[in-house]
Amino acid sequence: MEELLWIIESNKTINYMLKHCPYNILSKMELLHVKGKKFYLSQGSTYLSVYIIVSGKLKIFVSEENGRQILLDIYEEGNLIGEQEAFLNTSYSASVESLTDCLLIKIPNNYFLEWINLDKHFNQQLIQSLCEQMYELTNRAAKYSLSSVKEQVITTIIDLEETHEIIDKKLVVESVSATPRSVYRILNELERLSLIRVNPKSISIIKKEKLLIERKKV
């Protein structure tokens, strides 16, 4: 409990989320220190807790029948995991995996729902968060249904460059609704045009303005 209270005091994002949380709810929260690639929640499974990310990065993805993964999002500090499933009392619609070492706050579903009823401040935050997720989901659906593979690849590279320090090549492949072979073909084409550099595990943008122009050509 002492470590949780220290986190609330020292972390602005977590402080904003939990500052009005009743003590009886706080007392039911548990801190989890997890390693990269060691924390996994499976699509289609049911879990009894909601998680708040204090630090680290986790990927949210769905898996097709052939085993291919499609990346939906990268969650970081302040994001919630499992809140929709707790509301609906249903199984997870996507899988979750830690990309880095993470610190999580674990809350049993029943206490999470009680917290929402007691804390109007958090209730408003949650509504905003769910609206943002719906907005992103709409944009992503448009990206997959209306954009060519090349547009998706370029958009994904730019989005990852703006939100992450490193453009992970594997995440680019997982984010595009096409076969890995098709994605690699586009990456090789963009590299031949000297717009990007494809490294063994990452991608570097060389000419961002020309990369944006190339996307408009499609």
Automatic annotation (TrEMBL):
Residues 24-133 form the Cyclic nucleotide-binding domain. Transmembrane segments: none annotated. It comes from the Bacteria. Pfam families: cNMP_binding. Signal peptide: none annotated. Gene3D superfamilies: Jelly Rolls. InterPro entries: cNMP-bd_dom, cNMP-bd_dom_sf, Env_Response_Regulators, RmlC-like_jellyroll. GO terms for cellular component: cytosol. GO terms for molecular function: DNA-binding transcription factor activity. PANTHER family: CRP FAMILY TRANSCRIPTIONAL REGULATORY PROTEIN, REGULATORY PROTEIN YEIL. This is Cyclic nucleotide-binding domain-containing protein. The lineage of its organism: Bacteria, Bacillati, Bacillota, Bacilli, Lactobacillales.
